[in-house]
Amino acid sequence: MRIAAGVDVGSTQTKAVLLADNGGRKVLARKLTDTGANVQKAAERAFDLCCEEAGIKTADVGFVVGTGYGRYKISFGNAQMTEISCHARGASFLCPGTRTVIDMGGQDSKAISVGPSGEVLDFVMNDKCAAGTGRFLANAAEVIGIGLDEIGPLALEAKRPVKIATVCTVFVEADILSYLANGKKPADILGGVHLAIAKRTLSLARRVNIEPEITMTGGVARNAGMVHALEEVLGAKMNVTPDAHFMGAVGAALFALEKMDDSFEMGWTKDYASHRGN
């Protein structure tokens, strides 16, 4: 049985996935940890926890591919791939009919057009503005005074979502405070915030020619309010799997399996064990 790993070092969280190939590919383990200030340590921690969960030694992993903004800081990695390619490949693996990926992470959002084999046909990224990212939603939660995990369910309770004129982080805080001062319900405010983000994301996604099936990836996929708002503006259901947050790491692990061969695996395992002090 061949085992490969994908490590996705994001701006806020780091994800690791172990993938086994024994006549069929399956996920052995997945782990998530906060990235923090030390990117290298976060990658090692997520990877070690994955191996611990799978009941294997780190030296049993034949190849590691890193992705995400911190991919070049993964000292034990063998190769790096862009998160665009990894999210496309991971989405295609877990949801084979995927033709469009909407990825919403902590610091950026992306729309990716995907081919039948998981290849990237086109993509567009919003990495210059917090709108449509976890950071934007975290700011909204802070202004209202609730936890980030509470805003999605609360947004679903909106009866009359307010109109948010801007999705600029600086100005939307003033809008939220103004609505609160005028007695608007937090649920209606958050409903408006989620719809505003969804409409902006739709404009982004239209630049890559949205085609079904649509798969959502990234940490924001765990926000039920955001999923609902996106489906409302898209006019279509999206694939949202329990592994949506790990999609980049899954894709990286798939690339790692493809890059493996026995001779390289043996040589790298020795170097890796030496590097980690095993």
TrEMBL record:
Cofactor(s) listed in the protein's UniProt record: [4Fe-4S] cluster
Pfam short name (any one): BcrAD_BadFG
SUPFAM superfamilies, A to Z: Actin-like ATPase domain (SSF53067)
The keyword Transport belongs to this UniProt entry's keyword annotation: no
Top-rank taxon: Bacteria
InterPro entries for the chain: ATPase_BadF, ATPase_NBD, CoA_E_activase_dom, Dehydratase_Activator_Redct
Coiled coil: none
GO function term, MF aspect, one: iron-sulfur cluster binding
Domain spans labelled ATPase BadF/BadG/BcrA/BcrD type: 6-256
Keywords: Iron, Iron-sulfur, Metal-binding
Keyword presence, Transcription regulation: no
UniProt xrefs under PANTHER family: BIFUNCTIONAL PROTEIN [INCLUDES 2-HYDROXYACYL-COA DEHYDRATASE (N-TER) AND ITS ACTIVATOR DOMAIN (C_TERM) (PTHR32329:SF2), BIFUNCTIONAL PROTEIN [INCLUDES 2-HYDROXYACYL-COA DEHYDRATASE (N-TER) AND ITS ACTIVATOR DOMAIN (C_TERM)-RELATED (PTHR32329)
The protein, known as: 2-hydroxyglutaryl-CoA dehydratase
